[in-house]
Amino acid sequence: MQRRVFLSAVASAMLASGLISAPAFAATKIIDTDLVIVGGGLSGVAAAAEATDKGLKPVLLEKLSILGGAGNFPEGSLGIGTRYQKEHGIHWDVQRTVNRFLEFNHYRTNPNVIRQLIAESGSTIDWVVDKGVEIRGIRTIMPEEESFHCWHLFKGGASTVIAKLAESAKAKGATILMETPAKKLIMQNGQVAGVEAVNSKTGETVIVRAKKVILATGGFAANPGMIQQYVPDSSDPSVSEPIWLRSALVDGRTGDGINMAMRVGGATASMSQVVGNAPYLPDRPPINQFNGEDWLKQGRCALAQPWLWIDRNGERFFNESRGSVFTEVYAAMTAAGGIMYNILDQAKFDQLMATGPLIPFNAIVTVGTPLKALPKTFEEGMKRGWAFKADTIEDLALQIGVPYENLKATMEKVNEYAKTGVDTEFGRKKEHIAAFDMEKGPYYALKGIRTYFLTLGGIKINRRFEALNGQGDAIPNLYMAGADMGGLFMDTDDIKVEGATSSFALTSGRLAARYAMEAIGHKM
User: Fold this and answer.
1) pLDDT, tens digit, for every residue of 129-184?
2) Does Cytoplasm appear among the keywords (predicted)?
3) How far apart are CA 360 and CA 151, in angstroms?
4) Taking a C-beta distance cutoff of 8 angstroms, is the pair 230, 272 a contact?
5) Residues 194, 31: Cα–Cα separation, whole Å
6) CA distances (Å), origin 180, targets 63, 222, 333, 374
7) SS3 assignment, position 86
8) pLDDT per residue over 319-336, tens digit each?
């Protein structure tokens, strides 16, 4: 790889004549390389590590001052056929998993790509383990009888994966340029020939001339304009509350890769789809319920417990036993007006504090963990307007703004189900049906809203992860990875295939790098 820095001819002449001084303009750096990767999240660092494993020395451009971005937050990833599964006697089946994914998406997906991503997921888990990442177990948020037992949790979370892959890539010759956002693709004779970027700190233009380009910028979750334009859930006038982004305070996923590809003819698919996650407390930033103080994490867990979920009319709308299946909750809440309330009496409050939740909050608050911070949850939540406590049912209904008659009738109906052990409306599990004391308070409520953490739309690709134009032809030398890929999801993430999106990010980065190197003629 060769590097050289030059001054433009005009600037050089002006400098020589004394018309300008040296600091008045920024230099331009030119880098020649075989492969440039745009984006340093899970898919980008995976592509860089894979390339360096095979002897290539790519350039990676990252717009932020840290690697990983939102890719630091997943707890684990999908893996089918891993060494860990085999060592622990867990049976796996690639075809069953592929079939489930295709059926869930009603076959409106890219089966050639999906098969590769699922079939290679196990080797990807083994690969990151070989890089030094430890697996702390396989968990599920699904009912046990429905789980595929494929969600491998990383010790230290995905941030450890980012660190290990970046360490490996740099040790083997990758060049990683931080705070250097890509601005546009360079085109020559109708082909992608590199990337133009700018160093955010110095203003220096960086021209990376490359044989192949991989765009892996993470989608557009943090671009409010694009969310408003493409995602109906964000602007539907029938809902009481728009969707909130659950992400880091600094989030670089603003659609850079998708927009750059679109400007050179890239065709999009699935742009209206997000991975919704609900319910969450309406407390900003929502990510603090994921990795913040205990009273927030436990509050989020309490919100999803299978007591009594009501909509803005004071009526049930969902099977509360499935409160951990966050994509289903998101969909049901969207249909019910965008908000919900979970109703507790003192006995249920005390039960959560003493013996813990009946259903988990991801792997963050597990079943049976006493929610000792729940009093502080309500203390803070009442100040912030999303937690409520009242001596009577009527007063609680008034506080949360639902018709008292409806709330009372709904609670009485649940009490009837508690007598028979059968929920004839939504099929809540018998062990989750608990009667309310209708005579004696206090009564409690927590408000829930919808969040999202990932967009699923992007640029259409072929089986070699090459970007496609509107005619279905590959855009020469351009590859897509991670959340910049489009056409894989019809609606949302299927969390029965748990950890799929983070797994797809890692594996698509590896596969895109392989296909790019193969096209270059690099011997692997």
Assistant:
1) 999 999 999 998 888 888 899 999 999 999 999 999 999 999 999 999 999 999 99
2) no
3) 15
4) yes
5) 10
6) 5, 18, 40, 44
7) helix
8) 999 999 999 999 999 999
